[in-house]
Design goal:
Shape: globular
Distance between the termini: 56 Å
Number of domains: 1
Amino acid sequence: MTSWPDARKDNESTIVKKFKLLKDQLTKELALQLCRNAPGCGFLYELYDAKHLDYEGTFQAYMMFLRAIAAMVPRPSFLYIFPKSCAGCAMLQILSILCLHPVLENEANNLFCELLFDTRGDILNRDDIRQMAMMMRRAYKGREDPFPYIGYCLDYDRKSQGFNMAYVIGVLFSFDQFCELMKSNSVLGAQIAHEMVKNLAVSDRQSQQLYQLLSKYKELISDNKSDT
């Protein structure tokens, strides 16, 4: 099996089985292929359009499948799964699922830890994720289409704290330099992430803010090495 489940034709049991089968068969090559061939608006919208938002088991299998893919592919490839290949849209879709099914907070937490290379959970905990999901939900402004619709940036108030809080996590896990830092020095990486959240900028400025923080800490590390 090398294709995504069909939310319009398959029932919940079949979708869950297909996700589990794909996860069991997953290789890097297959993961990359599935990223390239993902539904254009994301699988959340496929379920929305098919009126299957109550499929809790499907969403659980989907979140676990996303985590398996994230462990195998580069972040740009992972983002093909979401609208516009946008990290902000990825965050909004994942948090939308958590709003629909709060019981899946463990799956959401595990996925974020994987995406952020945060093996110790220093950046986000379950309470953080729960609060972020609630704030994001309040920022939804797609009044003509019931929540969550596609779950992409244009459906949200971009000036709201909820939107920018979700967006900043997307900026972090999609920024190559930050991911490399998390692999080599997760304590410093988490410190930078907390500073990004504490001094929350609007979404358009977050990439620049992260770049500046990474440069600042890189200089400090270099200076400390020079002094020893």
